[in-house]
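Complex 168.
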Amino acid sequence: MEIVELAGMNRQELRAFIDEVPSIWEKKSGVFDRGMNPLLRNFGEKGNLLFGVHVYSIGSQGVAVILTEHDNDTNRATMRIHMTALVGLGGPSEWVHGEKKLRDAIDECKEETLAVVRAQYSGDLGWRGLSFKCPSCGASYFVSRRLVDSEGKTRCQNCNRIVSAVAE
Ligand SMILES: [Zn+2]
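Predicted structure with zinc ion bound:
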């Protein structure tokens, strides 16, 4: 397991940041160049803490799990990165190497990615996504255009329902 600390971002920014993790991986993966695709993500809240579980496939052989915790009081987040082989391909060392690689990539790109995420909010990169209010549960956050289909439907990160993406 590898740990990345992220300071100075609020919950919405963290949610948007997590959507950028596959892009960060693509940018930095180099020879370890299997694509990273989101399979599942979920958030839960308790008091000031936000907990996230994010599962990605790495090519067809591996799985990455990122556990996030965000403290609303300090605006600090921790990401715990786990990688494992799905079908026994690639020795354990390859996945340990992958964990380190993803940690380093996130570490290296975190300021730049946070700047992109903030630009999305300010509307500078409006085409990348929209401020979203779930018509079902009322949750407000930023949703990447990549996660909105051609009919304008997306999965709410909060209640997990498929809903129409309604800009706030
Ligand atoms: Zn919802």
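The longest helix spans residues 92-122.
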